[in-house]
Amino acid sequence: MSDALSYPRMELTVGDITQLKVEAIVNAANSSLLGGGGVDGAIHRAAGPRLLAHNRTLGGCPTGEARITPAFDLEARGVKHIIHTVGPVWGTDPRADGRERLGYRLEDNQLGQCYQACLELAAAHGARTLAFPGISTGVYGFPKERAAQIAVGHVRAFLGRSPVPETVVFCCFSEEDAEIYRRFLTPKDYSQSIQIGRKPS
Ligand code: ADP
Question: Band of the pLDDT at 189, cuts 50, 70, 90?
Answer without folding.
Answer: confident
